[in-house]
């Protein structure tokens, strides 16, 4: 094992672990802020209970997002120092702005949100909730601006062996970034929606309460809208990838021979050893051209026309992409079904459907991780696309034993954190909103404003 | 002032702000087992910092990110050179960070006991490691073309160990005073007494550090060339002495602010001595990282400076507002009344 391989494993492990927590922060912050807004608007204390219950789950998750994010910033310098020294001129700026603008925002207002219930007015408290939403989602924007620049470097020049930023506006308006940001943000919303419907379904299977019916309804609508948005933006994003990173697209589709027009094959079994597919059948005419070029006669570059030393590994990218898209379709379907069913009060008796929604809870998490595999593995062998190879970005002054120690050490710490987190979340989620649940669902209580 | 210098000063400001703020969080955690005699007192201690610690820690993340944006080569060399120490640092910060959320979730005393140990360890280790890292930065490292690649044990030289102990002492002192400002009852009195005692330790270790620095580092050469700059270390000493006076007359808030000023001035004293280096080569050798050979291009520097100038005042304004929201002492009644909150 070389420093390069170990550093890549460590980067994969730490970012994927971080990204277990991030999507829920993005989406659940919105749902909780909407609940609190409803409470402030209507004075209905049921919404306050909802805010506090879902907010508590949010906070445990938020804490893990924060602590696992810390290492990511350090890691660029620790393990990828040649990349950092080479690209920091452009890459450092969004990280600095992310800290200055968004991390400060969320970390300062979270204190007020958690502990300020009796210290600030309801409206100020609500303001803190929305500042959290803003801070969380804008921090995603800035980090994705940085990541999108690695995928599609714009606004820069290379001089004296280093990148120089020459156009911040070009960097900021990189279309690759904005599509990626929207795709990621809506993916986070889907995660949160299925998190809330899943836990609500669990409780509704045990007993029917107004608390979880409302939570379920709210999240179902949120999930439906978000799952459609994530798909629409995802399609646009795939088009952008096809224009800027043909090698990644070829890997995503396991597409070997350049064709014009290009068909889309529903069933594909890749055979990378032979630069071909073992099986490709069930073709949709013009399908790939439409997807990649948004036209019937568009040319799609196959992997065989990409130089051998510029090809990403096909199997992980292809499988991750297909699975992600399949899951994306499933989320739209489940979102439609959920919104359709919750129109009638008897939906709580469709136990099979509640079971399905409970079982679906982890799936959006899986889809998010798969999306990152497509994005990052699909970028290989480049760390900055067509500018710097991954192998040239790794630290030269760090030894194999150092990275091995950090990989194992962090792995153990993360495993401990993850098990504690899952244990606590399951415990709290199962307990439900502890006090006087019975009182909450009495109809008088629902109507009585505070 | 040239851009590189402006960003160096901003960089120093972020470190100074970070140590003056997260410094008391560390102090509170480090004194946790010592001063918190009952479960209510321990919840008071955590409660006194839980609304603000996260915002304080972002000063560190910002200092790191601004290093990256303004001095990419310094960021690359420093972070890879201190690989193992930073790994330990992050591990301790992770442990401390989750305590705030995890500790109160179960009422089992074994659970809270375990997190108490994690909290204390996660608050003692980082100040010491920060000191060791900065001590090595002040001394300089044996830098090759790609940075430092020497032994892990080379970091633990007497000078850096002393710097580590100094950081720890400063933050213990600072944290005890925070408790004296923000809590009441027996805990406040104990914290006040502790601050008064730790002060002597800070003075003694600080004096040793000041002398040893002249042998082990080149920090004083800037002061020889610019005697006017001596106003910074003199002000630091004055702030520390004034702090003792304020402690004696029991003006706890003013004493805490004087202690914060002493930390800020101490950081500026050291970094002004370092200027224009960011990581010197050991024994004045070649290959040191300076603001000139590490800086980003002027375009990127303008972006970084503009972001700092626009957003830092805003950040300070709303962080002050948060401190205002949580003003006043946290008393035993507060934590016993609101079981959930603390």
Number of strands of chain B: 2
Which residues of chain B form runs of ≥5 with pLDDT under 50?
none
Model regions low in confidence, pLDDT < 50 over at least 5 residues of chain A: 436-450
The averaged pLDDT of chain A comes out at: 89
| Number of self-contained structural domains of chain B | 1
The order of strands across the largest sheet of chain B is 1-2
Main sheet characteristics of chain A: 2 strands, antiparallel
Q: Which pair has the most extensive contact? A: A-B, 72 and 67 residues
Number of strands of chain A: 6
Number of helices of chain B: 15
Largest sheet of chain B: 2 strands, antiparallel
Q: Calculate the mean pLDDT score of chain B and round it.
A: 92
Strand/helix succession of chain B: HHHHHHHHHHHHEEHHH
Number of helices of chain A: 15
- The helicity of chain B comes to over 70%
Cα end-to-end separation of chain B: 47 Å
Can you walk me through this structure?
The complex is a heterodimer of chains A (450) and B (342). Chain A has a two-stranded antiparallel sheet with strand order 1-2. In chain A, strands 3-4 form a two-stranded antiparallel ribbon. In chain A, strands 5-6 form a two-stranded antiparallel sheet. In chain A, helix 6 runs antiparallel to helix 7 and helix 8 crosses helix 10. Chain A has one domain. In chain A, strand 5 and strand 6 form a beta hairpin. The longest helix of chain A has 40 residues. Chain A starts with a helix and ends with a helix. By secondary structure, chain A is mainly alpha-helical. By secondary structure, chain B is mainly alpha-helical. Chain B has one domain. Chain B is 77% helix and 1% strand. Chain B has a two-stranded antiparallel ribbon. The chains are: A mainly alpha (450), B mainly alpha (342). At the A-B interface, helix 2, helix 3, strand 2 and helix 13 of A face helix 4, helix 5, helix 6 and helix 14 of B.
């Amino acid at each position: 094992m070389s420093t390069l391989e170990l550093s890549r494993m460590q980067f994969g492990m730490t970012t994927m672990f971080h990204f277990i927590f991030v999507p829920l922060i993005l989406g659940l912050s919105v749902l909780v802020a909407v609940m609190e807004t409803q409470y402030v608007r209507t004075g209905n204390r049921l919404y306050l209970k909802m805010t506090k219950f879902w907010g508590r789950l949010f906070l445990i998750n938020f804490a893990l997002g924060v602590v696992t994010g810390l290492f990511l910033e350090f890691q660029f310098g620790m393990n990828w120092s040649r990349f950092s020294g080479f690209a920091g001129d452009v890459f450092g700026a969004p990280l600095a702005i992310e800290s200055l603008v968004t991390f400060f925002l969320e970390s300062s207002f979270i204190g007020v949100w958690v502990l300020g219930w009796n210290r600030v007015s309801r409206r100020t408290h609500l303001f803190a909730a929305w500042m959290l939403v803003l801070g969380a989602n804008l921090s995603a924007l800035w980090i994705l601006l940085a990541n999108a620049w690695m995928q599609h470097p714009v606004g820069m020049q290379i001089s004296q062996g280093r990148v120089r930023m020459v156009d911040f506006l070009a960097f900021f308006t990189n279309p690759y970034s904005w599509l990626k940001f929207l795709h990621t943000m809506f993916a986070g919303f889907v995660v949160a929606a299925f998190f809330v419907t899943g836990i609500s379904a669990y409780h509704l299977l045990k007993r029917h309460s107004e608390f979880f019916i409302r939570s379920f309804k709210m999240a179902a609508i949120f999930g439906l809208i978000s799952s459609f948005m994530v798909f629409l933006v995802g399609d646009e994003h795939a088009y952008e990838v096809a224009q800027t990173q043909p090698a990644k697209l070829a890997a995503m589709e396991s597409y070997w021979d350049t064709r014009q027009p290009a068909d889309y094959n529903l069933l594909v079994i890749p055979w990378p050893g032979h630069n071909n597919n073992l099986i490709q059948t069930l073709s949709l005419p013009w399908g790939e051209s439409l997807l990649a070029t948004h036209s019937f006669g568009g040319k799609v570059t196959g992997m065989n026309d990409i130089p051998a030393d510029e090809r990403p590994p096909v199997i992980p990218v292809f499988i991750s992409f297909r699975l992600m898209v399949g899951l994306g379709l499933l989320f739209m379907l489940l979102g439609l079904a959920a919104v359709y069913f919750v129109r009638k009060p008897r939906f709580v008796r469709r136990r099979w459907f509640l079971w399905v929604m409970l079982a679906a809870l982890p799936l959006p998490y899986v889809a998010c991780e798969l999306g990152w595999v497509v994005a990052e593995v699909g970028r290989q062998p480049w760390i900055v696309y067509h500018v710097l190879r991954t192998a040239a970005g790794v630290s030269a002054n760090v030894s194999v034993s150092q990275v091995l120690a950090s990989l194992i050490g962090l792995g153990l710490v993360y495993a401990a954190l993850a098990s504690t987190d899952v244990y606590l979340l399951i415990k709290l989620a199962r307990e439900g909103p502890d006090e006087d649940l019975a009182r909450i669902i009495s109809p008088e209580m629902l109507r009585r404003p505070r | 002032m040239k851009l590189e210098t402006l960003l160096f000063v901003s960089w120093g400001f972020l470190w100074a702000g970070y140590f003056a703020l997260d410094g008391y969080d560390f102090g509170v955690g480090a004194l946790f087992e010592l001063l918190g005699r009952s479960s209510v007192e321990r919840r008071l201690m955590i409660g006194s910092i839980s609304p603000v610690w996260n915002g304080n820690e972002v000063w560190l993340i910002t200092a790191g990110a601004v290093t990256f944006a303004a001095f990419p080569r310094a960021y690359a060399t420093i972070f890879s050179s201190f690989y193992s120490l930073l790994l330990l640092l992050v591990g301790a910060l992770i442990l401390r960070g989750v305590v705030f959320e995890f500790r109160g979730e179960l009422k089992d005393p074994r659970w809270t006991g375990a997190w108490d140990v994690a909290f204390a360890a996660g608050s003692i280790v980082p100040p010491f490691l920060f000191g060791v890292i900065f001590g090595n930065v002040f001394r300089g490292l044996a830098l090759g073309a790609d940075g430092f690649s020497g032994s892990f044990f080379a970091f633990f030289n007497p000078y850096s160990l002393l710097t580590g102990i100094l950081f720890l002492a400063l933050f213990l002192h600072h944290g005890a005073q925070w408790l004296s400002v923000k809590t009441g009852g027996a805990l406040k009195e104990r914290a006040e007494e502790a601050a008064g005692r730790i002060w002597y330790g800070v003075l003694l270790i600080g004096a040793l550090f000041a002398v040893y620095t002249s042998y082990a580092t080149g920090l004083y050469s800037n002061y020889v060339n610019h005697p006017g700059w001596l106003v910074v270390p003199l002000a630091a000493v004055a702030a520390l002495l004034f702090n003792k006076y304020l402690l004696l007359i029991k003006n706890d808030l003013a004493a805490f602010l004087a202690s914060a000023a002493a930390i800020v001035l101490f950081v500026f004293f050291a970094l002004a001595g370092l200027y224009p280096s960011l990581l010197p080569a050991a024994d004045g050798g070649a290959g040191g990282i300076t603001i000139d050979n590490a800086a980003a291009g002027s375009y990127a520097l303008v972006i970084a400076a503009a972001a700092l100038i626009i957003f830092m005042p805003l950040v300070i304004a709303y962080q002050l507002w948060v401190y205002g929201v949580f003003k006043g002492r946290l008393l035993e009644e507060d934590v016993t009344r609101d079981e959930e909150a603390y």
